[in-house]
């Protein structure tokens, strides 16, 4: 196992290098970089995403000395290869620089936005698993029944509804849109949060996070529920289950002592990757709709404004985190089922 972990950790290095290299040169080649955007702001030309190449501004008679200073300000006075090597050296030491537009260190920005995204990802994943696994077990035990058919129809409909559309429906019905005003429309905490008691802070936090978490969770039930059902169905028809019944064990003992552990292997081991997926990719529209200032919104804004330090810093940390989570998922397999051995991998 130690050898396998060491090999996986070594593979992180070339994977990170390849991803960062590919994205560096793709983004550098994209038009409308930070230099062009700054010149456009100074000249009052166009809007976000409508900037022109630097050569156009030179042709319009702009001061080349000013353009050179702007290039130096953003580090674009250095050759492309030199910028690339400098980026790699800095990232080895986790030095991501400062945002071009927020005048804040990238690492501080990420730490500031992280709690919002963690809240959405953690509670959404927990809600999905708490509902989907028991539901999948019951569907397996009652396969072909009316309950099985109705629940399958409901989760498929829920999976077909886009996350942002479901969020808007919740706002209309429960956040003062048209019918009820039961939940706040924006933010993750109230304005008077600091003045509340401990119980009041907990209540205020969950009051604000309820609708965003439900919105994020609606599309995750179908896959996990059907996966749980199929895993249990596969185990139920195996010979060891019939042998357990023959020994005199009741249904509850067979279900939770024998079937549950084997059926839950693939489901429990997928928790880290499921959390990572919701955390990094599933919350952008929800953060925008509910005005939640998290990593999704930060990443979107940095791409629009070509804020390269934020783009590459986020990409580097997310990629590293994703690779480590993948390793943790593999290790969970061996923890749940000791029969799995990675020594031969």
UniProtKB/TrEMBL annotation:
Localisation: Cell membrane
One cellular-component annotation, GO: plasma membrane
Transmembrane segments: 9-30, 118-137, 149-175, 205-227, 265-290, 310-336
InterPro entries: MetI-like, MetI-like_sf
Cross-referenced CDD domains: TM_PBP2
Alphabetized UniProt keyword annotations: Cell membrane, Membrane, Transmembrane, Transmembrane helix, Transport
Main subcellular location of this protein, as a coarse class: membrane
Entry keyword annotation includes Iron: no
Swiss-Prot/TrEMBL GO biological process terms: microcin transport; transmembrane transport
Keyword hit for Membrane: yes
Coiled coil: none
Protein name: Microcin ABC transporter permease
Species whose genome carries this gene: Helicobacter ganmani
